[in-house]
Amino acid sequence: ASIWATHPETYQYEFHALNRLHGFRFLPERMFQHVLSVGGAFGHELLPIVTRICEITILDPSDAYPGGALHGVPLRYVKPDPTGIMPFVDGAFDLLTCFGCLHHIPNVSTVIREMWRCLVPGGMALLREPIVSMGDWRKPRPGLTKRERGIPLHLFRAFLEQAGFCIVHESQCGFALTSRLSGLGIRHVYNSMPIVWGDVLLSKLFAWNRNYHCKKVYQKFTPTLGAFVLRKPEATPEGM
What we know:
- This protein is an alpha/beta fold.
- The chain has 5 helices and 8 strands; from the N terminus they run ααβββββαβαβαβ.
- It is globular.
- Residues 1-6 have low confidence and may be disordered.
């Protein structure tokens, strides 16, 4: 993250089409007063809806990002606590995004509960994470940290439901061969809407083949990401 922050002119966010298809298109057409981006770096993941945002907070451990504003929208950075407890009051945000951050965190269920707490009743959350092991973590894996691993889909669903979220939409994506298109000279494959639609089709066709840890070659032909559109239920008269 810090590498990109010191060379922002070379940075290009790579998942706009993926986020639109599996997340932003399910949001209501309204303004969002305060948006929390968990692990959002420059905040570029929010560019597709930035004209509908009044204020942005990014929860990120890096000291390298400048803050200030994103396309004129006030933006501030807050550091996360190692415990997973978020330093915000209850109901501080009406939208939360977390794309590819949770699988770096050891206490996933705690962070998901905190996401629920920090949303207003009726608030929305968009999450996308790996749902496969990402290889044998007992051995060095190029491009991955020692503790980096996906969240098994059944556990992911359980954590969300136990926290109190309503699942508005769930999809599987990131078919194993899609990212390999970059080897054919196609840059930023997940910024291409035609490719992302093709990825959706392949992910659906091979959803039956989903395995958390692939031990055989044919098991690698599978979706690798889980995407969720979530809502915190409205408060009841009893104050739920």
